[in-house]
């Protein structure tokens, strides 16, 4: 059981980040912010994939003014990601965004920050300070040897936090992202020793496909295992739904989120049926449920049931037949073509029983 570090609880629209709130999974809008219809369609896809929060970057006032139209059509909170332009930040708050990602240090002076903070207070909109190793202040880089050290990242966060705290504002979430995994982990660890503001985890520019998933999983999981992190985004050069699915899997495998888990063996020369096709079909089915159940799809009857003893239910294929097993014990032998249906039936039965108990 992972013991989570206690952080401040921040309300973001209809959910919470930090405190004892469940760890949330975020993604971003990746289409043209001017096209409300397309943006809404993508956010709805993210919602269907299980996103808790989404975020949108803006490039001009025209797209900032789309936030209220978008908000009316979606269920999850939306965050406006704004750099440098305080007028866009003010307008985003007026448009009803649920959170702003903004660094007070680069918004163009304390008077502008004051205006944003005053409006954020009035509308109860929290702010995320997003420190990125790639855009640290020059003096901090010099102070720490010319490269982005974890200490430099934390000091940059501290500067931004101080600006807000001096204005008596504490509805703050912080991220300290880098594309280097070790740097990311060290920066978050160092920060969490000093502050109790909730942390948004992520490894930035993680890359495409498999490499991105691996990189993000290592970085994010290392921190979650230490009890650090209140919300996360898996940044992938891929569709937002992929980011969400990966984020949710990370939480499930660490026991930090409810949901089904599929166990399947790597197959070997003992496998005598199309196990990969069955595993894929079961994986798709499991995406339609959110109950906690461990399901195994194994390559052979000889070792399958034993190797997958921890699963609530599983199937192990043989030649023309398969064995349905519960907690490692074979309960039924079935024809190969019935394996999918029988397994799904048993999964539903077990879930029903769990819910009644
Ligand atoms: S369960 Fe059977 S098929 Fe799968 S890896 Fe083990 S021995 Fe091979």
From TrEMBL:
Stretches assigned to the IspG TIM-barrel domain: 7-247
- UniProtKB keywords: 4Fe-4S, Iron, Iron-sulfur, Isoprene biosynthesis, Metal-binding, Oxidoreductase
What InterPro entries is this protein classified in?
A: Dihydropteroate_synth-like_sf, IspG_bac, IspG_bac-typ, IspG_C, IspG_TIM, NO2/SO3_Rdtase_4Fe4S_sf
Q: What is its EC number?
A: 1.17.7.3
GO MF annotation list: 4 iron, 4 sulfur cluster binding; 4-hydroxy-3-methylbut-2-en-1-yl diphosphate synthase activity (ferredoxin); 4-hydroxy-3-methylbut-2-enyl-diphosphate synthase activity (flavodoxin); iron ion binding
Class of this enzyme:
oxidoreductase
**Which residues does the record give as [4Fe-4S] cluster binding sites?**
265, 268, 300, 307
Which parts of the sequence belong to the IspG C-terminal domain?
A: 262-348
Q: In which pathway does it act?
A: Isoprenoid biosynthesis; isopentenyl diphosphate biosynthesis via DXP pathway; isopentenyl diphosphate from 1-deoxy-D-xylulose 5-phosphate: step 5/6
Supply the Pfam families for this chain.
Answer: GcpE (PF04551), GcpE_C (PF26540)
User: How is the co-factor bound, per the entry?
Assistant: Binds 1 [4Fe-4S] cluster.
**GO BP annotation list:** isopentenyl diphosphate biosynthetic process, methylerythritol 4-phosphate pathway; terpenoid biosynthetic process
HAMAP family xrefs? IspG
* NCBIfam families noted in UniProt: ispG_gcpE, PRK00366.1
Family annotation (PANTHER family): 4-HYDROXY-3-METHYLBUT-2-EN-1-YL DIPHOSPHATE SYNTHASE, 4-HYDROXY-3-METHYLBUT-2-EN-1-YL DIPHOSPHATE SYNTHASE (FERREDOXIN), CHLOROPLASTIC
Name the chain's protein. 4-hydroxy-3-methylbut-2-en-1-yl diphosphate synthase (flavodoxin)
Taxonomy, top ranks, is: Bacteria, Candidatus Beckwithiibacteriota
